[in-house]
Each structure stands twice: as structure tokens, then as C-alpha cells.
Predict the 3D structure of the following.
Amino acid sequence: MKITGLWIPLITPLYHGKFDEQSAKKLIETTREFTDGYVVGLSSGEGEELTNEIWQEAISCAVSSTNKSKKEAMVQEII
């Protein structure tokens, strides 16, 4: 898959240590018109600190909020 266009980092909003889906959807909604994709969980180096559960929630939210299939979504997981 060739990546083209503008892909921006998407911060992982947390509230009391849990993934804040409502805030993530707001971030996506305000930028969706101007971007071709998102880099989930790596914007400020927080990837190492996220649990697998939070990673999965963030990825699922980005995929469902951008109307892209999981096949179209490019995700890098840090294990």
C-alpha cells in the first residue's frame, strides 16, 4: 500500500487513565476535512505507555470515525 496525501498524528486522549472516545472523535471530526489519514498513538511518544486495550480502542475509534475499512487503515503497534 502506498501512502499518499496528508497524514497527521492523532493524540490519544485519556480521562482518568481510560481512553476518551468522545474527545478522540471530536479531534477527528475537526480535522477530517483536511487530512487523508491519521497516525494513531504516536504523536507525543505516548505509544510506549499505552496498554494493548487502549491501543485497540484508539485504532477502532479512528477506523470507525473516518469511514475507512480496517483493510484501508494503516496501523503500527508497538509491542
Q: What stands out?
A: Residues 32 and 66 are 7 Å apart (CA to CA). The longest helix spans residues 52-65.
